[in-house]
Amino acid sequence: MNNLVLAYLGDAVYEVYVREFLILNGVAKVKDLQNAAIDYVSAKAQARILERLINEKILTDEEIDIVKRGRNAHSHQNKSTDIVTYKKATGFETLIGYLYQNDKNRLEELMREVLG
User: Fold this and answer.
1) Are 101 and 6 within 8 A, CB to CB?
2) Are 13 and 93 in contact (CB under 8 A)?
3) Residues in CB range of 71: below 8 A, 6 or more apart
4) What are the angstrom distances between the C-alpha of 24 and each of 33, 39, 49?
5) The three-state (H, E, C) secondary structure of 70-108, written as one string
6) Domains in the chain, number
7) Sequential pLDDT tens for the chain (116 residues)
8) What burial letters (b/e) apply to 4-13, b meaning 16+ CB within 10 Å?
9) Which candidate in 11, 39, 61, 103 is catalytic?
10) Who's near 50: CB < 8 A, 6+ residues apart?
11) Measured CA distances, 25 to 22, 36, 41, 74 (Å)
12) CATH code of the domain containing 72
């Protein structure tokens, strides 16, 4: 599957995990849910999460390769963030999409790590 398509899928999958996490942790108002979700789903947040996963050696070599392929895919930059942050976020989303398609157990493991 195309890396940007995986990123597109990963964006949606990650959003569902974040929304469920927030709801299960007592955030009940839609406005509060939207505000709290930004701390997880913004490009800056995703880039920060990815850096932590790499620095703490939580990702496997194969997963890092998937991130790199997603990061290096030709995409249109979001105007609200710099290109480096945007590409890291795209790499993170690509990994989520890949794991959703290929290894849901590993996806669950990473989501527990990311969301606590």
Assistant:
1) yes
2) no
3) 87, 88, 90, 91, 94
4) 11, 16, 21
5) HHHCCCCCCCCCCHHHHHHHHHHHHHHHHHHHHCHHHHH
6) 1
7) 899 999 999 999 999 999 999 999 999 899 999 999 999 999 999 999 999 999 999 999 999 999 999 998 876 666 678 999 999 999 999 999 999 999 999 999 999 999 98
8) bebbbbbbeb
9) 11
10) 67, 88, 89, 91, 92
11) 5, 11, 17, 37
12) 1.10.1520.10
The CA-based diameter of the chain, rounded to the nearest angstrom, is: 40
Structural domain boundaries enclosing 9 = 3-115
Residue 65: active-site member: no
Cβ atoms within 10 Å of 70's Cβ, excluding its own: 26
Whether the Cβ atoms of residue 85 and residue 43 lie closer than 8 Å to each other = yes
* pTM above threshold 0.90: yes
d(CA 98, CA 110): 12
In the three-class reduction of DSSP (H, G, I as helix; E, B as strand; rest coil), residue 1 is classed as coil
At residue 31, the 3 state secondary structure works out as helix
